[in-house]
Specification:
Blueprint: H1 5-44, H2 49-70, H3 73-81, H4 87-115, H5 120-124, H6 132-155, H7 159-183, H8 187-206, H9 208-213, H10 220-230, H11 233-254, H12 257-269, H13 271-291, H14 297-328, E1 330-331, E2 334-335, H15 348-364, H16 366-370, H17 376-398, H18 404-425, H19 435-455, H20 460-476, H21 482-490
Antiparallel strand pairs: 1-2
Helix pairs in contact: 1-7, 1-13, 1-14, 1-21, 2-6, 2-11, 2-12, 3-4, 3-6, 3-10, 4-6, 4-10, 6-8, 7-8, 11-12, 11-17, 13-14, 13-15, 14-15, 14-19, 14-20, 15-18, 17-18, 19-20
Length: 493
């Protein structure tokens, strides 16, 4: 694929802007989601795999309920707020969206508090009288109130504000976990109580934007337009979350909480790839919405896709070949991940690949948002969920593959979903992706991943060398030019 000189220069400038924001959001997500990675050694050495399984089920439930608390307002807010240039119109959009969120958060929190005890034992393995249910409800409540101020900072391109809020939240959460879980030995209750306090602190820290901009005002016309755009994304996001967390509930049903704990601990290692994907998505959405009307945008998106595949491939190899062995090594008789959980590390390569494939689908889907064809999105994620559910049931009940069934299913899901998204979206928003370079990159990843096993060389030094050779080999194979990338990122605008 060839680009004119002005297109390459323009693309380089835009990619530099996207890279800056991705880096800042990446720092925020390393602090936020990276906290779960830091806490993994802490938890695996202090609680049993059965308790860790229950912990994973609790946060899977929270993730599902958050979909209904937000009810598509995050995507809709970004879509209407960012293109709007008039300050007064922007205030109307902010006030209308947050009023809707405020009311729904109170109503849904009350509903969960009243209904959850009746099925908490069967679904989450938590007694109906446990204080954990109160903590769970409070976490959902504070997260529901805090999410729009956080989205606002993204919409006005103030990622540093976001990072500062997340940093303080993480410090509070980590400190309280040390106190409640390690010192007071409160177990799951200590984990949840730490989260309640840190979530409440996040809401307080993010609320200054509300004091400055927000008034309880509701514009019916704006609300209808926003709901019309946002509500179709609710089933889509719900199915997307189901793909990510429903496997825990299936594993609990067929295998028990212990296997959920093993799978969830391995899944957390995959958070390294998820950090990059989430940081990219945070910067990606406002970026492509702002560039969507540019006639050169498809060529820009194609270049970003090639770079995205290359970078995620590097993360995949680094975690699989280097980080996982480091986590299993003894250090003075101690292990970063307790030996009871080592079996769960078998699922890490599948989780990493699944997250990578999900990231590719987020590149393919941009046309649906740019052309405001969000009605397709529930179809995409609905198909993904059906594939995931079917694959999990097949691997669990027919092939009896244990908790690894969830890893295999995740990869198959995002392969199918990515194909469906691309084949659909290209009909109304074609992007000239270079799939040849993508397959070369994937082939190189596979060769480097399997090479230590094929040669019988399990040395960490050899694996590290293979990872370091990855980008030079991509350059040699013509997938990308390291010299050009460095030049475009460092040159002055």
């Amino acid at each position: 694929m060839r680009f004119g000189g002005h297109l390459v220069s323009k693309a380089g400038s835009s990619i530099k802007q996207l890279s800056k924001h991705t880096l800042v959001y990446g720092i925020g997500n390393i602090l936020n989601r990276g906290m779960t990675f830091l806490l993994l050694p802490f938890y695996t050495n202090l609680i049993t795999k059965e308790e860790y399984g229950v912990y994973s089920l609790i946060y899977s439930f929270i993730a599902l309920t958050n979909v209904f608390f937000i009810h598509g307002m995050d995507t809709a807010f970004m879509r209407f707020f960012i293109p709007e240039k008039d300050p007064e119109s922007r205030k109307k959009i902010l006030n209308t969206v947050y009023t809707s969120i405020f009311v729904s958060t109170f109503l849904l929190s009350a509903g969960i508090y009243l209904i959850l005890p009746s099925f908490s034992q069967g679904l989450l393995s938590i007694p109906p009288t446990s204080a954990i249910l109160i903590y769970l409800t409070l976490i959902i409540f504070f997260d529901g109130l805090a999410f729009l101020p956080i989205i606002y900072y993204r919409a006005v391109n103030k990622p540093v504000n976001y990072v500062l809020i997340v940093f303080v939240e993480v410090v509070i959460n980590l400190s309280l976990n040390i106190y409640f879980v390690a010192y007071q030995r409160m177990g799951l209750s200590g984990i949840l109580l730490s989260n309640v306090i840190s979530s409440g602190a996040k809401f307080l820290m993010s609320s200054p934007v509300l004091w400055k901009e927000f008034r309880f005002r509701w514009d019916k016309g704006i609300w209808k337009d926003i709901l019309k755009y946002g509500l179709p994304t609710v089933p889509a996001v719900f199915f997307l979350i189901l793909i990510s967390v429903s496997d825990r509930f299936l594993l609990k049903h067929f295998l028990g909480a212990g296997d959920v704990g093993l799978y969830a601990s391995g899944y957390k290692i995959g958070v390294v790839m998820a950090l990059l994907i989430t940081a990219f998505r945070f910067a990606w959405q406002p970026f492509y919405l702002s560039k969507g009307d540019d006639p050169d945008a498809p060529y820009l998106f194609a270049r970003i896709f090639t770079l995205f595949v290359a970078v995620t491939g590097f993360i995949y190899l680094g975690v699989s070949l280097v980080l996982v062995p480091l986590l299993k090594m003894p250090y003075g008789g101690l292990y970063i991940i307790a030996t009871e959980y080592h079996e769960g590390l078998k699922v890490v390569p599948f989780i990493l690949l699944g997250n990578m494939l999900f990231g590719l689908s987020q590149n393919f889907i941009v046309g649906a948002y740019i052309k405001k064809k969000t009605l397709y999105i529930p179809l995409f994620t609905g198909i993904g969920f059906l594939v995931n559910l079917s694959a999990n049931l097949f691997f669990l009940t027919v092939l009896d593959l244990g908790f690894l069934s969830a890893g295999y299913s995740l990869v198959i899901t995002y392969i199918v979903q990515g194909l469906v998204i691309h084949l659909t979206v290209r009909r109304f928003y074609p992007v000239p992706y270079d799939f040849g370079k993508m397959f070369i990159t994937l082939a190189l990843m596979g060769c480097l991943f399997f090479l230590p096993g094929l040669l019988g060389l399990s040395s960490l030094w050899f694996s590290s060398l293979l990872v370091l050779l990855y980008f030079p080999l991509l350059d040699l194979l013509g997938v990308l030019s390291l010299k050009q990338i460095v030049h475009e990122l460092l040159k002055r605008q």
